[in-house]
Write a structure and sequence with these properties.
Helix content: 55-70%
Structural class: mainly alpha
Number of domains: 4
CATH topology of the largest domain: Arc Repressor Mutant, subunit A
Distance between the termini: 148 Å
Radius of gyration: 58 Å
Keywords: DNA-binding
GO molecular function: DNA binding
InterPro entries: KfrA_DNA-bd_N
CATH architecture of the largest domain: Orthogonal Bundle
Protein name: DNA-binding protein
Number of helices: 11
Shape: rod-shaped
Strand order of the largest sheet: 1-3-2
């Protein structure tokens, strides 16, 4: 009975020779032979361990084939690497160009933002300057249009007198009947009506002239005085000199005043003194310093921009001298 070692040795010899490893061929190589039942299990175990599959082994590779394959692989790898480097460099140049374009666009955008900010600042200053030249609405009206359309007490009284006069005309006609009271007198003639209405027309004309006397220049200087009052309210002490008030008004107000002859310390001092009084905006203190009228100077009692005398109470007049 052959041993495992004898069977495996014979199987390896057959495999090296390129012959088929079978029970019959192994039995021929065994020194004492053996039965199929004794050789078969041992050979089957060897085939599993050696991963043997029937068939001829491929011929050996020609000499030098490995070196040729290695050289070819090296050439292909070098060509692929060079092409990849070209692609990477080309993509990098494209990205660098896009980055430069974005940087130029960003610089242009920031320059435009700066220009727009300067334009906004300029327009805000222009708006402030123009507001000083626009008539201020009274405290009871929220806009200049309301001020124009609002009926003053004097106008209401005039209209009431006019309505009373018109209403009395039919009674006058009846009073002109003859003694019998059976007929009415004719209505007043044009001359009589003109004589009756002439005093009212003269009064209305005088009042229109008085309203027209309050010129644009007066409204402008009233606005400057209100700005000066706002500067005093915003100060920590509530008391400032003429130079300090002028500095608080700012260059926009000074520029707007050029239309009306300019604004300096002397002009501002005269305007402030015209607005000094119990029923006006300011009060004159020592050393030519000014405070708000009705204010004791303590920060706790000073009102905000909306407090103090009503707007327009500190009229300064249109004359600079």
């Amino acid at each position: 009975m052959p041993t495992r070692e004898q069977v495996e040795t014979a199987a390896r010899a057959l495999r090296r020779a390129g012959d088929r490893v079978s029970v019959r061929n192994v039995r021929r190589l065994l020194p004492k032979g053996g039965s199929y039942s004794s050789i078969g299990p041992l050979l089957a175990t060897w085939k599993l361990d050696a991963d043997y599959r029937p068939g001829k082994l491929p011929p050996a590779a020609p000499a030098g084939l490995g070196r040729a394959v290695d050289a070819f692989v090296a050439q292909v790898w070098a060509a692929a690497t060079a092409e990849a480097e070209k692609v990477v460099l080309r993509e990098r140049r494209r990205l660098d160009e896009r980055e430069r374009i974005f940087e130029r666009e960003a610089v242009a955008a920031w320059a435009e933002v700066d220009r727009l900010n300067e334009e906004v600042s300029r327009l805000e200053g222009e708006v402030r300057r123009l507001r000083l030249q626009v008539p201020r609405a009274p405290s009871s009206a929220s806009s200049p249009a309301e001020k124009v359309c609002q009926e003053t007490p004097e106008e209401a009284a005039q209209f009431e007198r006019m309505r009373g006069f018109i209403g009395s005309l039919p009674g006058n006609w009846l009073a002109r009947a003859d003694g019998s009271g059976n007929r009415r007198a004719p209505p007043p003639s044009d001359a009589e009506m003109e004589a009756l209405l002439q005093p009212l027309e003269a009064r209305w004309a005088a009042e229109r002239d008085a309203d027209a006397a309050r010129s644009r220049e007066e409204r402008f200087w009233d606005g400057v005085m209100e700005e000066a009052a706002a500067v005093l309210r915003a100060s920590s002490e509530g008391v400032l000199g003429t130079a300090e008030i002028l500095a608080g008004l700012g260059p926009d107000v000074v520029a707007a005043a050029e239309v009306f002859g300019g604004l300096d310390e002397d002009v501002l001092c005269r305007k402030l003194r015209l607005a000094v009084g119990d029923d006006k905006l300011f009060r004159l203190l020592r050393n030519d310093r000014y405070g708000l009228s009705g204010d004791d100077g303590s920060p706790g009692r000073r009102g905000g921009r909306g407090s103090g005398p009503a707007q327009g109470s500190g009229r300064t007049g249109s004359s600079r001298r």
